[in-house]
User: Fold these one by one.
Assistant:
Number 1:
Amino acid sequence: MSSDGDLGVVVETERLIVRPWHPDEADRLFDVLSRMDVVRGLGPSARPLKERAEAVALIERWTAGYGGGPTLGAWAIIERSSAVPAGTVLLRPAPDGDGEIEIGWSLHPDSWGKGLATEAASAVLGRAFAAGLQEVWTSVLPDNDRSAAVCRRIGTRLLGLSSRWYHEPGLIFWAGARDGQEPSLAPDALAAT
């Protein structure tokens, strides 16, 4: 695995370094995203990677960025204790959106249950708001209790159901940069209370 050094560190926490994926970590990314139990949480149209070359291409695409400057990207979540990527945290334009920015994550099963997704997403969200981003969204499959729990822990608010970005109903969570701020969009259906 690559040495972290100061190569593009996006944000750090006590346990984690969030930084770009390195090309020599394609095997680990492939291991994460070739698993159906991981990819299932990414949406109904997501499919597991079939070849290592797909992981290489993802790293290249992520390195090129999302055109939103340094605030947007898809980054490796590195556990300081092992220096092994636990998975990915991302901040990107929502697919088929109108400028909405979504936050997301995918972790290897050997990294589940440690609070790493919460820690990485919280740090990336805090950095994005400090850099001027006004609101962040995420869409979670209705049966993805793990990701819904992460959404709550990072301070996003469940608004309801929407098929706005993924053309399949998902739970829509939202966070704004300011106290008292309201979402710029409404869900298709309100959340059950």
Number 2:
Amino acid sequence: MLTGGCLCGGVRYEIAGALGPVILCHCSQCRRASGSAFAANASVRADAFRLLAGTELMREFEATPGKFRAFCGRCGSPVYARMDAWPALRRVRLGTLDGDPGARPQAHLHVASKAPWDALADDGLERFDAEGPAALGAPGDR
């Protein structure tokens, strides 16, 4: 069981299932939403993700048609994303987890649109200019 929450502590959640592949997404939307060079995400089954507290604090922003970014309305922490095209999945922001998820990044996605100031360290992970193969799980966070 994994647990996590937002910066202010108002939103708390648990994941009662396995994480999908951990992806480091460098697309412009993920950079803006995270305020960093990339976002670290992993897909989880929607039925394995459960809000424990702060449901009333959660807000969603439709970043592109059918793509929703969910965040705490009090502190602004991004918690997950969901897509109408993939209703059975949530893309959890790994920075909101309380502990070690037990999984490590498998790839960098959308490297072609990475921040120009990001040196992108030689970490041995696969790099994809865009989305990457379906084996990496749900579509990335464009």
